[in-house]
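Private note to self, pasted from the team thread so I don't lose it. Backbone tokens:
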């Protein structure tokens, strides 16, 4: 009895998992939580933060020990022992040196590392938005495949029935053998399209599984939106301003410009030499037996004033400004182009009201009855069904391009509407 209960519980859990459905929002949540590429990209942000911490540290002091004598000669002076009975003639020199950076070089490098962290954040954001766009476009593709699969299945079923009827009638010599072969050829073409559609569905589902890490996901578990809204109504009036402020490529380029400016500040600071402060102790090496002294050293900026690096940094700034201008011009044209495309797709879709599509589907059954009553010829029936299928395929193609263009626009602008 216990085994039966256990089997029942396992079967219930399996049935629940099998029947679980996912909305588009659920799939996006799974993508953000489980996608391995996003998880790996987060480590780049952590590494950039660690580099900022490292850059804030002062350079280590340098300890030098020298002038150690391992032997003595007759002219050696004797001093007090270092410890015990050893060290009367032992000489040693110890120096401790610390470099002190001038002109705020360390702070400038920390500022550069902070901007490089921003670059890692922009890379992560771009990857996330690009994968999210791919996720949504894959869902759009699967919706088209699902609708096409249903329509194709109906056509295959219809022509399968016709093939059986025409095969019987041709054997009875009520219809020509040529008509039977026409029906058979049309059915074979439809079945081949089914095979191609199955392969296309498998590829799209594989991509969606990789993005969401839902290994058991099936097409039947996806809850697609019932209708396509007028997406152009969602577009904000100040979309161009939002694009200039939110576009990932433009933000990254502006960040590169800020990095170039900070490098220019650092190169100018390199003109001022760093100072090395030292403390040294000398035992038995001078007129004082135990001598402690202070000192410093620095490079004299006589021959090298870092002019070449400063000039290169200035040219880099001008180069980054030019690239920003080019990106802004390209961004404006891209946003305008895709906005027009969305509006054009909407105009085309509005010419395909659902009532007319349902009416065309009913007309197929009417044409089939007319075919049986010999009110239309077989070629007229085949032409009508092919025309119907081409219309449906064109509608689904336009609908997918419409949704995909909207996702492309959101990606380019850098914000979901």
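Design output:
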């Amino acid at each position: 009895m216990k085994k039966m209960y256990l089997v029942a519980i396992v079967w219930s859990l399996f049935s629940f998992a099998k029947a679980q459905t996912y909305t588009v929002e659920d799939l996006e949540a799974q993508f953000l939580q489980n996608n391995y590429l996003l998880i790996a990209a987060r480590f780049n942000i952590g590494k950039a933060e660690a580099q900022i911490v490292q850059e804030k540290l002062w350079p280590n002091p340098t300890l030098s020990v020298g002038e150690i004598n391992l032997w003595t000669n007759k002219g050696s002076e004797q001093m007090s022992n270092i410890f015990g009975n050893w060290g009367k003639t032992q000489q040693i020199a110890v120096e401790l040196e610390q470099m002190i950076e001038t002109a705020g070089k360390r702070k400038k490098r920390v500022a550069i590392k902070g901007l490089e962290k921003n670059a890692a954040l922009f890379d992560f954001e771009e990857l996330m938005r690009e994968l999210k766009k791919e996720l949504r476009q894959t869902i759009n593709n699967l919706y088209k495949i699902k609708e096409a699969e249903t329509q194709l299945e109906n056509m295959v079923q219809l022509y399968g029935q016709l093939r059986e009827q025409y095969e019987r009638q041709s054997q009875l010599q009520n219809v020509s053998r040529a008509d039977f072969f026409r029906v058979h050829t049309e059915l074979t073409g439809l079945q081949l399209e089914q095979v191609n559609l199955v392969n296309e569905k498998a590829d799209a589902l594989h991509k969606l599984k990789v993005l969401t890490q839902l290994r058991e996901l099936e097409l039947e578990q996806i809850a697609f939106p019932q209708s396509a809204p007028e997406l152009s109504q969602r577009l904000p009036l100040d979309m161009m301003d939002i694009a200039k402020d939110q576009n990932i490529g433009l933000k990254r380029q502006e960040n590169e410009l800020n990095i170039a400016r900070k490098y220019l500040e650092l190169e100018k600071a390199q003109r001022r030499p760093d100072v090395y402060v030292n403390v040294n102790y000398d035992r038995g090496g001078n007129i004082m037996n135990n001598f402690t002294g202070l000192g410093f050293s620095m490079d004299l900026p006589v021959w090298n004033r870092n002019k070449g690096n400063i000039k290169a940094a200035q040219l880099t700034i001008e180069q980054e400004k030019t690239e920003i201008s080019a990106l802004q011009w390209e961004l404006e044209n891209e946003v305008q182009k895709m906005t027009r495309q969305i509006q054009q797709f909407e105009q085309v879709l509005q010419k395909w009201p659902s009532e007319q599509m349902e009416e065309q589907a009913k007309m197929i059954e009417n044409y089939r009855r007319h075919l049986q009553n010999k009110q239309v010829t077989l070629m007229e029936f085949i032409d009508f069904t092919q025309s119907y299928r081409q219309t449906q395929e064109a509608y689904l193609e336009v609908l997918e391009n419409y949704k995909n263009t909207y996702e492309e626009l959101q990606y380019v602008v850098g914000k979901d509407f």
